[in-house]
Amino acid sequence: MRKLTLPLFFLLLTVAVDQLCKLWAVDYLADKTSVEVLGQFVMLTLVFNEGGALGTSLGSSTYYLISSIAILIFVLYYIYAHRQTARVAYPLAFTAGGAVGNIIDRLRLGRVVDFIDVDFFDIDLLGYHLDRWWTFNVADAAITCSILFLLASALMSRRRQQAQ
Fold this sequence. Notes:
Distance between the termini: 34 Å
Helix content: 55-70%
């Protein structure tokens, strides 16, 4: 059980920071169109997302709620199964915390609060055009960063094994 203390801390920290930021965003940004942080490159824009990641709308908010809960159960199991391996358990704890943060929004509001608005680069791919990146939140950032860390870690581990 002791090996689960730090992953649980990271999970709860992610949920707390996410929910506090969302409460602040709803209160502060409710009557504003956008607030520039770093010019138009980084802005704060309040958006209520009933769909999923990257603006998808594959079903109702309930569909995304049920899918999130199912994925969360899998991630929690994987944290438990790999509790001895910090480079797996810790990032998955951030993923689980992000999932819980967005699940709380869906249960409380029926949609997810997004407010971080970044203009990375334009995308033109097979007739699809995107001028600004999708608006996201702390939970989304935690999920994305932890998955990128896990992918990079797996690639580096594989390269180490091939070099031996």
